[in-house]
Design a protein that fits this description.
367 residues, alpha/beta, Rossmann fold, Arc Repressor Mutant, subunit A, 19 helices, 5 strands, globular, disordered C terminus
Length: 367
């Protein structure tokens, strides 16, 4: 299985050394891109969709941890391997809060690097039994199913399942009935794997139905199997409707209030999801559906508005304002502020006008 890897480090010799290590070790280790700082790393991650990002912690423009914080709102499946010459426990604590599990110190030990990559691949193999599915269904099909399940949209679930069974219909003569049954079971497991916040109830539901007299093992026709697959997926969503925090209360309004009151802290998507007992992917999709923007952009806008107030009404230094609105890297904060207002913090404070069109570049990133 090919692994798409992005390298982010401000030392050219480290980047080249890692590329050589990886490409020499295995043709399955595909280095899809390199970046020299956190801002460029963010752009490359959004563009290239890497499976693994190997990144330094301390870099100009934006640190590796700030980059990870921003990427996770867009690429929640990406895994990270952090490298650093600094034995800094505070950095490690922040990294672990973002879900990072793999750390290497400079100089990099090849065997440790390869071992971490193989641990990640092993975790994928254990958690996601969709190798067989990937042979039949496109990545877009699987993503559509996952999104439909997280939004609990019966119409979209039906469309996703129907599309997959059209593929099975075309391949029916080359697949045994047992193969198709196993694919159906894997589709149900794949579709419910993100319901981690209700895993006991989901596991109980799956156990009752998979082992029942009407389980998939007793079905032979594609029509029966399609109905079973759809009903299992639809039912998994329905059992959560009774206490769905997103429906019984205004989840998005509460999340906005929480962000307004805590914007100065390191707020990650996982932090919010855990606080409100929802799946991170579900919350991210629901937030965008209800507000038209991502939670990360909303949080950034809150911070920039507060920074504007502090620049206008206080004598705080820019680095002090940076810390008060939730950032650790002053350069990164200044870049974001300029993108938001068209002016650097110092120019904004002095009352200077924004540059004319074409004199500076503000890049809008796709959600």
């Amino acid at each position: 299985m090919n692994v798409r890897i992005l390298i982010v480090d401000d030392e050219p010799e480290i980047v080249e050394g890692l590329k050589l290590m990886l490409t020499t070790q295995s043709p399955e280790y595909r280095v899809v891109g390199c970046a020299r700082d956190g801002l460029d790393g963010f752009d490359k991650a959004i563009e290239l969709h890497p499976d693994i990002i190997i990144t330094d912690i301390r870099m100009p423009q934006a640190s590796g941890l700030d980059m990870i914080r921003d990427i996770e709102a867009y690429e929640p499946r990406t895994e990270y391997i952090l490298i650093s010459g600094y034995a800094d426990f505070e950095y490690a604590k922040r990294a672990m809060a973002y879900g990072v599990q793999y750390f290497l110190t400079k100089p990099i030990d090849e065997e440790e690097l390869f071992a971490d990559i193989e641990k990640i691949r092993g975790k994928w193999a254990a958690q996601e039994n969709f190798v067989e599915m990937a042979d039949l269904f496109s990545e877009e099909m699987l993503q559509n199913l996952e999104e439909a399940m997280m939004l609990r949209d019966p119409k979209r679930i039906r469309e996703a399942v129907s599309g997959m069974f059209e593929v099975l219909q075309a391949r029916q003569g080359k697949l045994s009935t047992e193969n198709i049954r196993m694919l159906c079971l894997n589709l149900v497991l794949y579709g419910t794997r993100k319901y981690s916040h209700a895993s006991l109830r989901i596991n109980s539901y799956l156990g009752r139905n998979v082992l029942s007299s009407r389980s998939v093992s007793r079905m032979n026709s594609l029509d029966e199997l399609e109905s079973w697959t759809f009903n299992m997926l639809k039912g998994a969503g329905e059992i959560l409707e009774g206490d769905d925090t997103g429906e019984k209360r205004d989840l998005i309004s509460e999340a906005k209030t929480y962000m307004r009151e805590n914007y100065a802290k390191n707020i990650s998507l996982n932090d919010i999801a855990e606080r409100f007992y929802v799946n991170p992917y579900y919350f991210s999709q629901l937030f965008k559906k209800k507000t038209g923007t991502t939670y990360q952009k909303y949080l950034t806008e809150l911070r920039m508005k507060r920074a504007e107030v502090l620049l206008r009404e206080t004598d705080l230094k820019v680095y002090e304002i940076c810390g008060q609105v939730g950032y650790t890297d002053t350069n990164y904060f200044s870049k974001l502020f300029e993108r938001s207002t068209g002016r650097k913090p110092s120019a904004f404070r002095s009352g200077g006008s924004a540059p004319a069109d074409g004199q500076h570049e503000i890049r809008d990133r796709k959600d």
